[in-house]
Amino acid sequence: MACRTYKGIAPVLGENCFIDETSVIVGDVTIGDDSSIWPLVAARGDVNTITIGKRTNVQDGTVLHVTRRSDQNINGYALAIGDDVTIGHKCMLHGCTLGNRILVGMGAIIMDGAVVQDDVFIGAGTLVPPNKTLESGYLYVGNPAKQARPLKHHEKAFLKQSAINYVELKNDYRQESNN
């Protein structure tokens, strides 16, 4: 089974979610309505919490994790992902905060304490270092991530459309599995 309990805490799924059977969702993980978790995703909410918003898609091979609470870091670093977010294939998100309408390109890494504001594109392979803030309305690329340019109007529109596309795709998968 894709969803597993850890220390008595089970993942909480919103309505009409799709969780691929090859993914692993463990512990204190909350997934919003109409969101999708694709093959080989690992989301381990064991030493802190993971929250995923509505209509968000986490694509194949992505790892979602957190940082434990300690004397040096009282709250640790939870992972919070907003609504209408597209997380590309094979990304690593660790103890960071993502707003709404974001596209995280394939293979990107976002580290502890980083904050990504609403309406942001993160290019494939980008490394967002610890505690960095990515401002709303820009494309970021590189290692470390650098602000490349403002998003164009059609790119901002695509952020929402990407989420809609994945809601439709997960609906197809849910219907297929019900047959």
UniProtKB/TrEMBL annotation:
PANTHER family: DYNACTIN SUBUNIT P25, PROTEIN YRDA. InterPro entries: Hexapep (IPR001451), LbH_gamma_CA-like (IPR047324), Transf_Hexapept/Carb_Anhydrase (IPR050484), Trimer_LpxA-like_sf (IPR011004). SUPFAM superfamilies: Trimeric LpxA-like enzymes. This is Gamma carbonic anhydrase family protein. Pfam families: Hexapep (PF00132). It comes from the Bacteria. Gene3D superfamilies: Hexapeptide repeat proteins (2.160.10.10). Transmembrane segments: none annotated.
